[in-house]
């Protein structure tokens, strides 16, 4: 299963970032500071050094989730590759991932770019051929 996020930086909000930071730390001052440093006018800008950090903090819970539902998973920024034993497992996981992204993180997947294919056919994931 190869699935990609749609406009990942645009979808990350201060509210979601705060929620994820609270899972790791309980220092309100530090959380407020991180939000002030990383967001500009409520938006996560593209191209700043802190933006990938924010995205990875937000996606950490998804990383744990993907390890639970798949035999193998790999994430590079907003691109995700997950391996399953059966087609049915991959189909089920596709919808579980889309629901997790939307209801937990406020992120959507790219339309028509979620593909499920057998591992014996070539799959290009971020330039690496599986």
Can you summarize this structure?
With 130 residues, this protein is an alpha+beta fold.
- Kindly provide the radius of gyration, computed on alpha-carbon positions and rounded to a whole number of angstroms: 16 Å
User: How many β-strand runs?
Assistant: 6
Whole-number mean pLDDT: 89
Q: What are the secondary-structure elements, in order, as H or E?
A: EHHHHEEHEEE
The oligomeric state of the chains shown is single chain
**Sheet having the most strands:** 4 strands, antiparallel
DSSP helical segment count: 5
Biggest sheet strand line-up: 2-3-1-4
How much helix is in the residues? 40-55%
How many angstroms does the end-to-end distance come to? 12 Å
Can you tell me the overall shape? elongated
Flag low-confidence runs.
Answer: none
Beta percentage is 15-25%
Q: What class, by secondary structure content?
A: alpha+beta
Q: How does this model look, in words?
A:
The chain is α+β, with helices and mostly antiparallel strands and 130 residues long. It is 48% helix and 16% strand. The longest helix has 20 residues, at 50-69. It has helices at residues 8-11, 14-22, 28-38, 50-69, 87-105; strands at residues 2-6, 72-76, 79-83, 108-109, 124-125, 128-129. The mean pLDDT is 89.
Defining traits:
four-stranded antiparallel β-sheet; two-stranded antiparallel sheet; alpha+beta; single chain; 5 helices; elongated
């Amino acid at each position: 299963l190869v699935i990609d996020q749609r406009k990942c930086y645009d979808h990350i909000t201060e509210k979601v970032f705060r929620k994820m930071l609270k899972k790791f730390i309980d220092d309100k001052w530090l959380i407020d500071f991180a939000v002030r440093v990383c967001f500009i006018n409520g938006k996560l800008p593209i191209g700043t050094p802190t933006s990938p950090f924010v995205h990875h903090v937000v996606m950490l819970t998804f990383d744990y989730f993907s390890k639970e539902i798949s035999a193998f998973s790999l994430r590079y920024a907003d691109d995700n590759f997950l391996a399953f034993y059966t087609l049915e497992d991959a189909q089920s996981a596709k919808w579980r991932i889309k629901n997790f992204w939307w209801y937990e993180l406020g992120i959507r997947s790219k339309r028509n770019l979620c593909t499920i294919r057998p591992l014996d056919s070539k799959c290009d994931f971020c330039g690496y051929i599986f």
